[in-house]
Design goal:
The complex is a heterotetramer of chains A (about 210), B (about 260), C (about 70) and D (about 220). Chain C has about 70 residues and is mainly alpha-helical. In chain C, about 80% of the residues lie in helices and about 0% in strands. Chain C is built from two helices and no strands. The chains are: A alpha/beta (about 210), B mainly alpha (about 260), C mainly alpha (about 70), D mainly alpha (about 220).
């Protein structure tokens, strides 16, 4: 009997205003896999990731989580994913530490929070309100979640935007250890990753859309 | 799936093309019916119905005011139900019906208010009174305008549809509450000397044309709704092959007429 | 059933209430007519728009073939 | 994730408002300022003010609540927190209710607490002060819930504020009718518990239904 993949996407189609966004998407992800979504701007990378997080409902096609449709095991599925989108979801009036505490599992200890912030280079900024931090630092606060989360599946939408080279290195190291621990990652980025066995998935804009423009 | 077979009529009903073609066959009949009923009802009501003992001839406005108000309110429920069907079964046609019902309902509500005001002047001596029913009608107008405004506020057709469907549903839950509370508010403030709310018992000769006008307005409403929906279908389905063929055919016909 | 007025003139006047009744009737008929004419206009405009787009598409394809 | 559930969002929104007290206090300031306009605009005569007071206080409270409703989901939508809330592993109605409760605690409750002062300034008879506070406490909670539906529907629109008021004011009408009626009946010396009970019934219905409508609106509309 073939092993059920951790995540299985089958002929996923999304229409917005009667217009198909991309050609049907199908792929499987196993534990330990990292998939990089590629495609030109506006191809629907963000839309695809939001479909996977179930923030959007697909027009047709299915997403299976360990063989079950995610609609049938919704909360179980949501509890095992981590999504970091374009906007960092950081509150300006809260400090870096308060923001990370809010975004991390309840069981996270104070020292784990401090360690995570130190990992992303925010040592010394823990108690600074976020409005006095830069855009790159806001992203770092959001990305510090990667060091506190217990989620198995990571969805990262352009995680390296506004992050410097050194930061990218740290994040990739963390991603590597996540994969080694049996997690999986799906991310969209235009950068080439310095990691082994990155699978690339090319997303194609639907042929409808070219006609329209 | 075989178990879904008895649902096919439902989905066929949801097909814009099926709707467009079927209503296309109905239209000539509906036009005739509407025009005949409206003419008959108006002539009967304005010319043949006996005049009211107290109000004189101004009471003849009732033949427009009551049917129009009736349809204005019924139209809101129709709109909300269409929106709910759209939300639940994701049926595109249903949203189109909802979108078409909004301007018709708003126009009829406006007419109800207008005819009410014109009727009020000779009867009560003033164009506007904060009477329970008039106030409720005014609120209904704003509910309609809200749905319309929300529909067009979104760039995305789909978001507009969903948002106005939700708003229409919220409004539906609210309408009975609004009506009851306005009614209660009115009894609280109503001066004891004037009473408009008690409906005068109508003579049968006056009632028959009213009934006819209500039927005529139903027919009119159906006609207007179908016409608006058909225009909306063409716009939404403009990329479908059958619509393209239709457009080319229409182009040829008009070119033929011109030549 | 009997016609209530002796003459057209009388029917227009309606014993002093004529202008109320006839304003209500006129405005109602105007609005109702608009509700029927407006969708017909939209219907025709949509058809025209689609036809124009199709013709443009055809021209473009024709031009493309000539170039080849 | 820890940030699930009613209390988590309630506490968080309270903390966020506390960090920006100036902004959070603006509905209250609005309420106080508009009450100055009435004697200036109508008449300083205590008799006439007393006659207008029940209705005016309610109209002002309604507008003050409406003013603050727009921001209920807007900042969360802009900074991406709303997206995270939508995919939290739990019933969306719970955090929604938490946020609305926080909104009421920051607007409706302070309005209720300062209303005796406004009553004093507008020469509201003292028998009506308790009914006014009771009706405002219950009524503004209804207003917060109903307003949140409008805020959710318009959250993704850039200029949603004006549209929001068009959508929401007609739905506010039953609340203002029974709210001001409670005060008015107390002024007239009758039993004001009747209108208040109806207001409380409306609040129960709103607590049951509004979070569902808000959650539906956020899911369907904000995502596109």
């Amino acid at each position: 009997m073939p092993k059920t993949p951790l995540l299985s996407v089958d002929r996923l189609v999304f229409e917005r205003d009667d217009c198909n966004i991309f050609e049907p998407v199908s792929f499987n992800i196993e534990a330990g896999d990292i998939v990089q979504i590629e495609g030109p701007n506006g191809a629907g990378k963000t839309t695809l990731i939001r479909l996977l997080t179930s923030a959007l409902q697909p027009t047709s096609g299915s997403i299976l989580f360990s063989g079950d449709n995610i609609a049938d095991c919704h909360y179980e599925y949501l509890a095992s994913i981590l999504y970091i989108g374009h906007q960092p979801a950081v509150k300006m009036t809260l400090s870096a530490e308060e923001n990370l505490r809010w975004m991390s599992p309840a069981t996270t200890t104070a020292s784990e929070i401090d360690a995570a912030l130190a990992e992303v280079g925010l040592r010394g900024y823990e108690d600074v309100p976020c409005y006095s931090l830069s855009a790159g630092q806001h992203r770092r606060v959001a990305l510090a979640r990667l060091f506190t989360t217990g989620s198995k599946i990571w969805y990262l939408d352009e995680p390296f935007t506004a992050i410097d080279k050194q930061g990218v290195g740290i994040l990739q190291a963390r991603m590597g250890s996540h994969l080694a621990a049996g997690g999986c990652i799906l991310l969209s980025t235009h950068q080439d990753l310095a990691m082994d066995k990155v699978r690339k998935y090319n997303i194609e804009p639907h042929s409808d859309r070219e006609q329209q423009q | 799936m075989a178990s879904n077979r008895h649902w096919t009529w439902f989905y066929r009903l949801g097909s814009p093309r099926w709707f467009y073609e079927t209503t296309g066959r109905w239209l000539p009949w509906l036009w005739t019916l509407t025009l005949v009923l409206l003419t008959a009802g108006l002539v009967w009501g304005l010319g043949y119905a006996p005049q009211d003992a107290k109000q004189g001839n101004s009471f003849r406005i009732i033949y427009l005011h009551v049917p129009v108000s009736f349809l204005a309110l019924a139209g809101y429920y129709l709109m909300a139900i269409a929106g709910a069907i759209g939300l639940i079964w994701k049926m595109k046609l249903s949203y189109m019906v909802m979108k078409s019902a909004a301007p018709i309902g708003a126009a009829l509500t406006f007419l109800a208010l207008f005819t009410g005001a014109v009727w009020g002047k000779p009867t009560w001596g003033t164009y506007w009174v904060w009477d329970a029913r008039i106030t409720s009608m005014l609120i209904l107008l704003f509910l309609y305008l809200g749905v319309l405004a929300l529909q067009y506020a979104f760039h995305s057709q789909e978001s507009g549809n969903k948002a106005s469907a939700i708003l229409a549903l919220v409004g539906t839950v609210n309408i009975p509450i609004i009506y009851k509370s306005v009614d209660w508010w009115y009894t609280l403030h109503q001066p004891a000397t004037i009473k408009f709310t008690s409906a005068p018992s109508m003579h049968i000769d006056m009632f028959q044309p009213l009934l006819l006008m209500i039927v005529a307005l139903y027919s009119f409403y159906a006609l207007a709704l179908i016409l608006f929906t058909r225009a909306e279908i063409l716009q939404r389905e403009r990329k479908a092959t059958w619509v393209c063929e239709l457009a080319l055919q229409a182009g040829k016909d008009s070119a033929g007429e011109a030549g | 059933m009997k016609f209530q007025f002796d003459s057209v003139q009388q029917m227009l006047e309606m014993a002093g209430h004529g202008h109320y009744v006839w304003t209500a009737v006129l405005v109602s008929l105007l609005v109702m007519a608009w509700l029927l004419v407006r969708p017909l206009q939209l219907h025709r405009a949509n058809l025209k728009f689609i036809a124009r787009q199709l013709r443009r598409e055809q021209r473009r394809q024709g031009a493309g073939e000539k170039q080849q | 994730m820890s940030n699930v559930g009613f209390t988590a969002y309630l506490k968080r929104d309270l903390l966020l408002s506390y960090r920006r007290l100036g902004e959070a206090a603006s509905p209250l300031m609005f309420f106080l300022l508009v009450s100055i306009l009435i004697p200036l605009g109508v008449s300083p005569d205590p008799g006439r003010l007393a006659e207008l007071a029940p209705g005016m206080i309610w109209v002002m409270a309604l507008l003050a609540t409406l003013l603050s409703t727009e921001g209920l989901f807007a900042t969360d939508h802009q900074d991406g927190s709303l997206e995270q809330m939508l995919i939290a592993p739990q019933l969306l109605a719970l955090p929604v209710l938490g946020k609305v409760t926080a909104h009421w605690l920051m607007t409706g409750l302070p309005l209720t607490l300062v209303s005796p002062l406004i009553g004093l300034m507008l020469s509201l008879p003292s028998v009506a002060v308790v009914p006014m506070m009771a009706s405002l406490a219950v009524g503004t909670a209804c207003l917060s819930l109903i307003g949140a539906v409008g805020a959710a529907l318009t959250v993704s629109l850039r200029k949603g504020g004006l549209l929001l008021s068009i959508l929401v004011i007609p739905l506010y009408i039953p609340v203002i009718i029974f709210g001001s009626a409670a005060v008015q009946t107390a002024v007239d010396g009758f039993n004001w518990l009747g209108p208040l009970a109806i207001l409380a019934a409306m609040l129960c219905a709103a607590i049951a239904l509004c979070p569902l409508a808000i959650a539906g609106a956020l899911r369907l509309v904000s995502s596109n």
